[in-house]
């Protein structure tokens, strides 16, 4: 193992530890949800999982490479796998607070011979703040635990509107906006196309239900009617029944219009929804001009090919999808593509080996005479690399926490130490800059940073940060701790003859517009990018 990383060796514990003076926690969906309580974790998730873990590690590397950023102190990490499972994530997150609960301040004790007692266990540093989670259902569970210990949490992906409620989530912030903004954006898109009679489908979970409520609230304000409302359950039989009900209700002879379906569902719902919809379309023999037009929230993952494989492509065609406005981070991509077997930073993330085995169907450490596919021979290529859309927001979350730590580091650890030493050594002299450089670094983390007051850190430091992020955009939190509200509007166009957009990252998803909440709500749609047949279909 690399000297840079210390791993817990138990096969049942899914986490990595990176040593440092101050520890930042991380919670990411490295694996999909398992099929049973005995198997809480499923297959490894490359984009939403591994990419986000590496985005956090990359951001820590950038900060730690700047000696003046935290005056020589290093940020470390404790990164956990949520397995896309709220209950499992909550259990895992106990590691963020376990040391805090069980630790003893030895300075309060003294041995009979007058010496200072020593702990028999290697001391672990308390977690200063946590980056994560991703799915809102996971984030809410983790936030409910962390708030009890006043640990600050910054999510790079969770958009649940309730998380802005400071009476419930006092130490929570995020680098993405609330779903309330997304609902307004979807309303503005509907008004742009004069869709005043729509259907609404949402998942039976917090993400779906809160998103649907926000949409209905905005729809009432703008006189948009909801003809059909369908709540879908993750249980297979109930799921099929919900889709059947939806298709039947959308038949033209039953209800005119309302073929525009506003979709607020988690990413795991979409593949089955598209499959069931395509099957119903085939059975009903629906002509093209009578098919469903999806207006989907950012829960639709364009990097997930399972959405559009086989017959699903027919059901998904023409979908209008909101995506949090993000940009690719070239420096991160260069870093990530360099992570190949043999690279020192490849070994610090144990999940990369698992990803290699899964992605390349190979094994590590085989004897020379073995004919089995060797993982060491496989390399990533830029041609097949599609980075996760939220890499930018993960990096923003780490930078925000680090920026927030700068001020207390300086005042408590640097200036506080200088003041104490100045009063003892040279109370009447002016402290020279050379003296500061010689004496301001303490051998261990200062006591003020060992147990950070989450309430003070959140209000006084974190929410006040302002910085230029990794893509040159200015970042700051809203008073509620939310990130800026900017969305990109995509259209799924699988045909080969459609025009390509310069901003498109996946060839079948075309950027057709943008929405932002500044002083005035604005939606900009470039209708010329829609194919003529598709534009008539959308407006007809």
UniProtKB/TrEMBL annotation:
- Domain spans labelled Receptor ligand binding region: 53-494
PANTHER family linked to this entry: METABOTROPIC GLUTAMATE RECEPTOR
Task: List keywords of the entry alphabetically.
Answer: Glycoprotein, Membrane, Receptor, Transmembrane, Transmembrane helix
Q: How does it sit in the membrane?
A: Multi-pass membrane protein
Q: Which Pfam family is one of those matched by this entry?
A: ANF_receptor
What are its GO cellular component terms?
Answer: membrane
Protein name according to UniProt: ANF_receptor domain-containing protein
Compartment annotation: Membrane
Offer an example of a GO molecular function term for this protein. G protein-coupled receptor activity
- Database matches in CDD domains: PBP1_mGluR
Q: Does the keyword Transmembrane apply?
A: yes
Major location, coarse class? membrane
């Amino acid at each position: 193992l690399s000297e840079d990383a210390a791993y817990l060796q138990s096969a049942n514990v899914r986490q990595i530890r990176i040593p440092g003076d101050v520890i930042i926690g991380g919670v990411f969906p490295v694996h999909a949800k398992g099929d049973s309580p005995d198997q809480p974790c499923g297959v490894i998730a490359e984009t939403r999982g591994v990419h986000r873990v590496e985005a956090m590690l990359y951001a820590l590397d950038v900060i730690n490479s700047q000696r003046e950023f935290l005056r020589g102190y290093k940020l470390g990490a404790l990164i956990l796998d949520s397995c896309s499972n709220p209950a499992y994530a909550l259990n895992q997150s106990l590691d963020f607070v376990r040391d805090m609960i069980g630790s003893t301040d030895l300075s309060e004790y003294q041995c009979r011979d007058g010496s200072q007692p020593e702990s028999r266990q290697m001391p672990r540093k308390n977690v200063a703040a946590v980056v994560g989670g991703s799915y809102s259902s996971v984030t809410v569970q983790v936030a409910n635990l962390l708030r009890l210990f006043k640990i600050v949490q910054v999510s790079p992906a969770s958009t649940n509107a309730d998380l802005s409620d400071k009476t419930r989530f006092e130490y929570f912030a995020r680098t993405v906006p609330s779903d309330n903004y997304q609902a307004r954006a979807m309303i503005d898109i509907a008004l742009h196309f004069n869709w005043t009679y729509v259907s609404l489908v949402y998942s039976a979970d917090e993400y779906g239900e809160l998103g649907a409520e926000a949409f209905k609230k905005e729809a009432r304000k703008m006189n948009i009617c909801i003809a059909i409302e369908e709540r879908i359950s993750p249980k297979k039989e109930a799921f099929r029944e919900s889709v059947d009900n939806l298709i039947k209700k959308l038949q033209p002879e039953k209800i005119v219009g309302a073929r525009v379906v506003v979709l607020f569902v988690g990413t795991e719902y979409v593949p089955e929804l598209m499959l069931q919809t395509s099957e119903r379309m085939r059975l009903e023999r629906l002509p093209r001009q009578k098919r469903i037009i999806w207006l989907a929230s950012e829960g639709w993952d364009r990097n997930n090919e399972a959405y559009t494989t086989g017959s699903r492509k027919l059901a998904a065609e023409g979908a209008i999808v909101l995506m949090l406005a993000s940009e690719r981070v070239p420096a991160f991509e260069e870093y990530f593509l360099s992570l190949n077997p043999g690279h020192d930073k490849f070994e610090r993330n144990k999940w990369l080996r698992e990803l290699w085995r899964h992605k390349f169907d190979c094994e590590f450490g085989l004897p020379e005479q073995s004919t089995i596919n060797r993982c060491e021979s496989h390399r990533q290529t830029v041609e097949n690399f599609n980075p996760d859309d939220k890499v930018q927001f993960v990096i923003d979350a780490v930078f925000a926490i680090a920026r927030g730590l700068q001020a207390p580091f300086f005042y408590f650890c640097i200036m506080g130490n200088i003041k104490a030493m100045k009063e003892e050594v040279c109370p009447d002299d002016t402290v020279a800059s050379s003296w500061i450089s010689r004496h301001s670094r303490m051998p261990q983390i200062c006591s003020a940073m060992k147990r950070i007051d989450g309430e003070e850190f959140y209000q006084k430091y974190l929410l006040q940060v302002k910085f230029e992020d990794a893509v040159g955009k200015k970042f700051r939190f809203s008073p509620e701790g939310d990130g800026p509200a900017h969305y990109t509007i995509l259209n799924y166009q699988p045909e080969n003859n459609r025009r390509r957009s310069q901003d498109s990252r996946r060839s079948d998803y075309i950027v057709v517009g943008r929405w932002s909440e500044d002083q005035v709500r604005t939606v900009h749609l470039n209708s010329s990018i829609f194919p003529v047949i598709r534009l008539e279909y959308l407006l007809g």
